[in-house]
Design a protein that fits this description.
By secondary structure, the chain is mostly helical. Helix content is about 60%, strand content about 0%. It is built from 10 helices and 2 strands.
């Protein structure tokens, strides 16, 4: 007996058939069909990344703290009344009573000056043994730490990206040799190598940068950049290599190879 198929009816599953039981499904509504027909708004990698970032409250809070810290180390040294190596003075004379002051504490000479009508800016973090303001020294220390972290990250990114890209692109024996070098560097103790390279580079770089622009940065800073560049790029190289190897095995790449295109 022939039965006419209607749009509002679903065919029944045949007995002992391996096909999916269509009775468990229902036709899509007009609203659901319209949602599938509506094209998603085009976006970029940056916009998509920012949208994911804003959904992570811890990442947003860390970004806000980093922005505040960056603005602080840029603005505070220009408006703060004390400098990095300045010793506290009162009426043009060094104040020897300003040793090891607690936060927002004034020395005896400063208290007398305040009683005489002078305005003295408080020591936010107190002072050290040599009567120097702690807060401005912490600000300069934060500036150095951020610069070291920024430039070290850039060096690690550049070296790791190039090394990992070459290893993953060529593959085979080239990849094998390059990854064994990475394993050797991974096996070295980080702390010992950092101390050793810092001492050696600190003595060798000094004469090389005398009279150049790099002399203003200092031997220790440059040696730190070199140490980070020599030791901490291996993780980035492995990550980039893995990504390139996964892309080489994608279906569209294999299809291009089957059509005679040159494999990446």
């Amino acid at each position: 007996m022939n039965h006419e198929f209607k749009d509002d009816m679903l065919p029944r599953k045949h007995f002992l058939s391996l096909q999916i039981n269509l009775q468990k499904f229902s036709p899509a509504t007009d609203e659901e069909k319209q949602q599938h027909e509506t094209m998603r708004e085009s976006t970029t990698f940056f916009r998509d990344g920012m949208r994911k970032l804003m959904k992570n409250p811890l990442a947003v809070a860390s970004l806000i703290v980093l922005i505040i810290l960056t603005l602080t180390i840029i603005i505070v040294p220009a408006i703060y009344p004390y400098s990095y190596s300045q010793m506290i003075t009162v009426d043009g004379k060094r104040d020897k009573t300003a040793k090891n002051l607690a936060p927002f504490e004034y020395s005896k000479n400063e208290q007398k000056a305040i009683e005489n009508g002078e305005t003295i800016f408080p020591h936010i973090f107190g002072t050290d043994e040599l009567c120097r303001d702690y807060f401005i020294r912490v600000v300069f220390g934060a500036r150095v730490s951020l610069l070291v972290g920024l430039f070290a990250s850039l060096i690690v990114l550049v070296i790791g990206l190039l090394y990992g890209s070459i290893s993953g692109y060529f593959g085979g024996r080239v990849d094998l040799i390059m990854m064994r070098i990475v394993d050797i560097i991974y096996s070295l103790p980080d702390t010992l190598m950092v101390i050793l390279l810092s001492v050696v580079l600190g003595q060798t770089i000094g004469p090389m940068i005398q009279g150049t622009v790099l002399a203003s940065i200092g031997n220790n800073m440059i040696s730190l950049f070199v140490v980070f560049g020599l030791l901490y790029w291996v993780g980035m190289a492995r990550l980039v290599r893995g990504q390139i190897l996964s892309i080489k095995n994608n279906e569209y790449v294999l299809a291009a190879q089957a059509l005679g295109a040159k494999p990446p």
